[in-house]
């Protein structure tokens, strides 16, 4: 279990998403941080000097500034930085936060940016439960930061995570519409891969062939519909089977039971 899922976070009023002013600069070389700052770069160019080390800032860079850090920063006025910043503190042992690096570059496949935007919306609107939701969003962002750190320790992992995301998206596409007659050629086109390579990577990542996955999701959906009270013929038609007899044979082959036995 990740440390961040159980850590108590304390939020304050210092948060936002801003386009930095053309003459913006940041100098805390003589005044260290007294809290944490989750600082995410949406776009722009700049430089951050953290504890004496210079970092050229780029899109999707994310800094985790910690109490005691000395920093300064500047940016290119022609390409100003747009950043989200979230200041917070913690209660209890923060050893794991200090074990993380100060900087990661997020892979876009993490889909972290909607969580950043949601955090700002929640804190600004202050609807019922906003404080607890904001804390959960920050914990999720810290968890993604931790995951990104672990992934970056493995050479070539970015490419693997990208292909993993593609296959997970294809799997979700199939599960969303199991009654469609999904062809390998069509699915491979969605993945922008050749049919042969797509089939090999799908099996490698998902642990089963694309054909067996399609059947599995179709039978799972059939079971659900049968339990809702639809009869075997209706389910067979809904899921695109060419005949009720073929559906029944395939259902029994996968589950070991006749579909009529599953009706509630």
Structural features, described:
With 264 residues, this protein is of the alpha+beta class. It is 44% helix and 22% strand. The strands form 2 sheets. A 5-stranded antiparallel sheet has the order 1-8-3-6-9, with helices on one face. The mean pLDDT is 89.
Helix content: 40-55%
Strand content: 15-25%
Protein structure class:
alpha+beta
Order of helices and strands: EEEEEEEEHEHHHHHHHH
Largest sheet: spatial strand order: 1-8-3-6-9
The averaged pLDDT comes out at 89
The number of helical segments is: 9
- Radius of gyration using CA atoms only: 25 Å
| DSSP, total strands | 9
Shape: elongated
What ranges have pLDDT less than 50 throughout 5 or more consecutive residues? none
**Whole-Å distance between the termini?**
38 Å
Biggest sheet details: 5 strands, antiparallel
What is the structure about, briefly put?
With 264 residues, the protein is an alpha+beta fold. It is 44% helix and 22% strand.
């Amino acid at each position: 279990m990740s440390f961040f899922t159980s850590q108590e976070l304390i939020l304050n009023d210092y948060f936002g998403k801003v386009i930095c002013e053309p003459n913006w600069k940041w100098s805390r070389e003589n005044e260290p941080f007294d809290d944490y700052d989750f600082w995410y770069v949406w776009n722009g160019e700049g430089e951050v000097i953290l504890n004496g080390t210079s970092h050229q800032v780029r899109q999707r860079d994310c800094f985790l500034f910690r109490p005691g850090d000395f920093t300064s920063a500047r940016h290119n006025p022609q390409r100003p930085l747009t950043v989200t910043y979230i200041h917070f503190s913690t209660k209890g042992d923060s050893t794991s936060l200090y074990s993380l690096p100060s900087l990661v570059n997020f892979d876009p496949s993490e889909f972290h940016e909607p969580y950043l935007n949601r955090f700002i919306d929640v804190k600004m609107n202050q609807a019922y439960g906003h404080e607890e939701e904001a804390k959960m969003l920050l914990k999720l962002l810290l968890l993604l930061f931790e995951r990104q750190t672990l992934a970056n320790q493995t050479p070539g992992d970015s490419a693997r995570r990208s292909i993993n995301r593609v296959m997970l998206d294809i799997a979700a596409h199939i599960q969303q519409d199991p009654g469609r007659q999904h062809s390998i050629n069509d699915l491979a086109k969605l993945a922008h891969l050749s049919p042969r390579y797509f089939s090999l990577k799908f099996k490698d990542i998902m642990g089963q062939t694309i054909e067996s996955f399609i059947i599995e999701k179709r039978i799972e959906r059939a079971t659900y519909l049968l339990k809702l009270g639809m009869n075997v013929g209706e389910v067979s038609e809904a899921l695109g089977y060419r005949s009720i007899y073929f559906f029944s044979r395939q259902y029994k082959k996968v589950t070991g039971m006749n579909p009529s036995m599953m009706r509630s």
